[in-house]
Amino acid sequence: MANTSSDRSHILVCGGTGCLSAKSDAIAETFKEHIKAHGLENETQVILTGCFGLCALGPIVVVYPEGAFYSNVEIDTIPRIVEEHIAGGKVVADLVYEETRLEDGKIGCLGETGFYKKQMRIALRNCGLIDPECIDEYIAYDGYFALAKALTEQKPQDVIDTVKASQIRGRGGAGFPTGIKWQFAADQPAGKKYVACNADEGDPGAFMDRSILEGDPHSIIEAMALAAYAIGADEGCVYIRAEYPIAVNRFEIALKQAREYGLLGKGILGTDFNFDLNVRLGAGAFVCGEETALLMSVEGKRGEPRPRPPFPAVKGLFGKPTVLNNVETYANIPWTILNGAEAMQKIGTEKSKGTKVFAVGGKITNVGLVEVPMGITFREIVEEIGGGVPNGKKFKAAQTGGPSGGCIPAEHLDTPIDFDSLMQIGSMMGSGGLIVMDEDSCMVDIAKYFLDFTVEESCGKCVPCRVGTKRMLQILDRITEGHGKMEDLDTLGELAAHLAQASLCALGQTAPNPVVSTLKYFRDEYIAHIKDKKCPAGVCKELLEYVIIPEKCVGCTLCKRVCPTDAISGNVKEVHVIDQEKCTKCGLCLPACKKFGAIIRE
Questions:
Q1: Using CA atoms, how far apart are residues 372 and 171, in angstroms rounded to an integer?
Q2: For the residues 375-397, what does the mean pLDDT come to?
Q3: Over the stretch 291-318, which tens digit does the pLDDT of each residue have?
Q4: Residue 177, helix vs strand vs coil
Q5: Which terminus of the chain is more exposed, N or C, with fewer CB under 10 A?
Q6: Which residue, 53, 102, 63, is CA-closest to 216?
Q7: Quick check: 217 and 224 in contact, CB under 8 A?
Q8: 123 contacts 328 by C-beta, under 8 angstroms
Q9: 349's torsion region: left (phi>0), alpha (psi -120 to 50) or beta?
Q10: What is the 3-state secondary structure (H, E, C) of 337-381?
Q11: 401 alpha-carbon distance from chain centroid
């Protein structure tokens, strides 16, 4: 960064997948054109960074040194920002995010907004701050300092001891202590060992690992080098979902730069430590998030889990001891080595140290990526960071852990978030997806959605998962179509128990969680579907009825004209009627009658 110290402005443009899909790369180029037109190209830098996190407001642009936060930036507004702010020195107040417009007329910065105030960024520390394609910027923010410290001041066991003492648990879902996993691998006889990274994030709505790879790829390279040094490995691989082309490209650029700087390869930093990495592309199978299935896929075999033990730390890739962690876990490692185990211990709860990254989505105002200290409550995330449920709707539930997790009702909004408390209320941390649902969400339909996903993604190797999930899905289909029986609820519970006990891997073992949690907290909705043949949320199509309220119907015929099946009858200025036998529940009549509100959905 030394060669940029004379710059008077840095314009950071979000280059995460979300903002790039909204043409943030074109926004960056347009900034450059207008800056050049003002003759400011030698004193202003435009940098495409990783994700800022607040995806709901993209494309995002932050201008330093003021830290002015421009949201929903459009090409047409760029000339004003350059002319008034960059050239004129005055922040364009009407274009910055409204929360940063302070009462005294001053402009606040990003960190003072409700979305960022309660966050603590360790894994995401460089995302939105540096150019992920520039190794110099990573180094300027203490990048590779942890590796240098380990190689020059510590023995391999010292690194493991630090990770163990920090009490970091794996962020991929199971929450296994990272330091103990590393110790298992280190304790194996000397010889070929591997380090691997799970970047095959496949949970619906989850994009934490992708964002870290896109925004801070060198942190993963550094962390994997530290793991390799700790266990005595000289080779590693990163298994990246091929559906993440930006992450793949930036990671390969980072690999090339690290080799050029002598941070990968032979004799790293002048020591006798040798280590190199390669990229393996995954084809997008959810089961390959399971560690043994991932390693099978890397070996060129079908991505199926295999029985454990032996665990990968003892017998992993090509039968050799292998440390496998996910992206977010590795992203915490350099910070921990550099700041010490005690720094990590001070964050979080007694048994869950550090922070957790969540991809917050669904019925919430601030959709995006957040990193919070363990122990924060759901209410703080949903209401303060997430900005609450939009359109005046009520919070109904939050799904954590993706298809392997469970639905948490409003009564648990004040539960502190950590590995153990989530398990106690019937959910799990998972990789960190957090989907918020409002009163318009049908919990039976939600359970069906996630189970349908796991049925599609089951590798089919073991019978409990292959047959059990399918059978459960058939029952849910029947219930949502109005053909369920009360005994189905008991059958669902029995199947869930068998799946959890008998499935070969975590995909099958945890697949019933959405069903079990919704049965526990929203059983009345299941009963309404079965006994009353009604969907309380008005979601399950087969159970809906569109009805005309005679007192409100003026006989305008608008509904009749849009009905594709001639299910609505009635003459002009007469009360109309819907024939439920002919009605296909398409709902076109509802907006057609918006002016009079004579049609309701029951």
A1: 13
A2: 96
A3: 999 999 999 999 999 998 999 999 999 9
A4: strand
A5: C
A6: 53
A7: no
A8: yes
A9: beta
A10: HHHCHHHHHCCECCCCECEEEEEEEECCCCCEEEEEECCCEHHHH
A11: 10
351/489 Cα distance (integer angstroms): 35
Three-state secondary-structure class, residue 558: helix
Distance CA 238, CA 90 (A): 45
Q: Residue 542 and residue 156: Cα distance in Å, rounded?
A: 62
Identify the CA nearest to 204 among candidates 446, 424, 541. Answer: 446
Average pLDDT over residues 264-275: 97
Q: What is the pLDDT of residue 2?
A: 41
CA dist 575 and 577 (Å) reads 7
DSSP for 216-279 reads -HHHHHHHHHHHHHHHT--EEEEEEETT-HHHHHHHHHHHHHHHHTTSSBSSGGGSS--BEEEE
Which token pair is 562? Answer: 């849009």
CA 484 to chain CA mean position, Å: 34
**Kindly report the CA angle at 371 between 399 and 515, in degrees rounded to 5?**
10
Q: Provide the residue type at 380 as one letter.
A: E
Taking each continuous run of H as one helix and of E as one strand, the counts in the chain are 24, 17
Query: What is the predicted pLDDT for the residue at 6?
Result: 60
Tokens coding 16: 């995460």
- Please, where are the H alpha helices in 53-155? 78-80, 114-117, 135-140, 145-153
Count how many residues are written for the chain.
602
Select from 357, 336, 331, 335 the least CA-distant residue to 165.
336
CA–CA distance, 35 with 45 (Å, rounded to integer): 9
Token look-up 């084809």 returns 283
pTM for this predicted structure: 0.93
Element (H, E) at 325: strand 322-326
Q: How many CB atoms lie within 10 A of CB 271?
A: 12
Tokens encoding 471: 């059978």
Query: Among 107, 78, 104, which Cα is nearest to 91's?
Result: 107
In angstroms, rounded to a whole number, what is the distance separating the alpha carbons of residues 318 and 50? 34
Tokens of 329: 């876990």
* Tokens encoding 96: 């910055």
Give pLDDT tens digits for 96-149. 999 999 888 889 888 889 999 999 999 999 999 999 999 999 999 999 999 999
Fill in the DSSP letter of residue 596.
T
Closest to 60 (Cα-Cα) out of 94, 20, 100: 20
Res 601 pLDDT > 90: no
Helix (H, G, I), strand (E, B) or coil at 491: helix
Cα gap 348→420, rounded to integer Å = 12
What is the per-residue pLDDT across 235-247, written as a single tens digit (0 to 9) for each? 999 999 999 999 9
Inter-axis angle of helices 178-186 and 156-166, nearest 10: 150
Distance CA 55, CA 42 (A): 31
pLDDT digits (tens, 9 = 90+) for 3-35: 455 678 999 999 999 999 999 999 999 999 999
Distance CA 143, CA 141 (A): 6
